[in-house]
Structure formats: C-alpha cells, structure tokens
Amino acid sequence: MSFADEWTTSGTGPAAGMRLNGWQAEHGTSEAASLPDLDISTAALRGLSKEMGTLHGRMTTALTNLEQAHTGLTTATKGFACTAELKKVRGSWEDRLRDVRNECERLQTAFTKAAEAHDKNEDNTKQEMSSLSPGPSWREDRPNSPITNFS
Length: 151
Prior knowledge:
By secondary structure, the chain is an all-alpha fold. It has six helices and two strands; from the N terminus they run H-E-H-E-H-H-H-H. It is about 65% helix and about 5% strand.
C-alpha cells in the first residue's frame, strides 16, 4: 500500500493524529492513549544505511563476477545462434544490477541524512523545551515574610 493510499484510508478523525513520545497521553485527552506514537530511532536509521552500503558492495561484486564469467564467451560460442541472445541476457542482468546498486546508494544517503536531521532536530527541540521550562512558582519567588510561621 502506498503512502497516499494509507493516508486516505486512515481518516482525519482523532485516531489519525500522532502523539510525540507519549506526551499527549499524560497531558491530553482520553483519546490520546489510543493514538500511534511517533518514535524515531537514529540507530535504526544508521543501521539501515549500513545495510544499504553492504548491498551496494554486493551488487558491485555481482557485476564484476558477471563480467568475469562472460569473458571469452563470445569467442567460445562463435557460430552458435544463442550468442546474440546471451549478450542480451547479460546486458539485461547488468542493467538490473546497476539499478539495484544505484538505489542502494540513494537509500544509504537518504537514511544517513534522515538520521543526521533527526539528531539535529532532537537537540534543537530539547534546547527549545528547556528554555520554556517554568520558572519558580509564585510562592518560591516572593520574599519570606518577617512574621514567623506566616507564608
């Protein structure tokens, strides 16, 4: 299911909302507990990026192996009707392997950038939220009364 399909089927009511790491569950309506939680793991994003790098390397190796396996094949099959078809099949496989390799590289970069962006976002959010933390209450802020046991 594509994102657009999922979005249109999820609705627009209260169940379609998001809560940030459970914040609304403690401070919001009773509906908040049933909402999905938005929790992004930068370690998971970096792990996915690493896996994409591994797959990229494997596709490069597969292309090299395919080229080596076909070395001398044209001369060895000279005169056979299948030689031209073997070239087409090889070309098709090379195109597919290159496409997969390029997609792995694109995803590796995207996952790395997403992890970096989330790290920066987390740091910025923590700074902004700490600057919004409440000051001392009115009781703590006022001077002590000169009258004993009077607050």
